[in-house]
Design goal:
Layout lengths: L4 H4 L6 H25 L2 H22 L4 H5 L2 E5 L7 H16 L3 H4 L10 H6 L1 E5 L13
Antiparallel strand pairs: 1-2
């Protein structure tokens, strides 16, 4: 089911908002890694950072549809039918993000030119990233 932006009043989050949210997430994960790096050998801390990042993104997309960066910028990941992500779709979206990275970030840059502001990872997982109003930013639910 395709979301029609004008029919249900959804505004898609663009490239720059999503990039800023990601940079906030990188800062959060980097801070956690810096603290843990003090107590762990270098190889272990890098492996731990990879696991922490995977759990961070998949877990928060599944739980709220938002990472900490997305919460701060009041944007949210939803399915094309307006529902929240299930664990399987969060995993699928994460896998799509890896594909975007392997293509030298072309899959992420794609969203700047897409009419629904979808990157390849969004298309793979059938998701959209939407802007939330101030009222919606504190609510969790379906948007269709």
């Amino acid at each position: 089911m395709e979301v029609r932006q004008k029919e249900i009043g959804i505004e898609f989050a663009g490239f720059w908002a999503r990039l800023w949210a990601f940079l906030i997430d990188v800062a959060v994960l980097g801070s956690a890694w810096a603290i843990l790096h003090i107590f762990m050998p270098a190889q272990v801390s890098w492996i731990f950072l990879g696991l922490l990042g995977t759990i961070y993104f998949i877990g928060l997309w599944w739980w709220r549809g938002q990472t900490l960066g997305k919460m701060m910028l009041r944007i949210k990941v939803i399915r094309s039918d307006g529902s929240s992500l299930t664990l399987s779709y969060a995993l699928l979206r994460y896998g799509g993000s890896i594909i975007c990275c392997l293509t030298l970030f072309v899959g992420f840059i794609w969203l700047a030119f897409d009419s629904h502001k979808q990157g390849w990872h969004d298309k793979i997982a059938d998701t959209y990233v939407i802007k939330l109003s101030l009222k919606e930013a504190v609510l969790v639910g379906t948007y269709a």
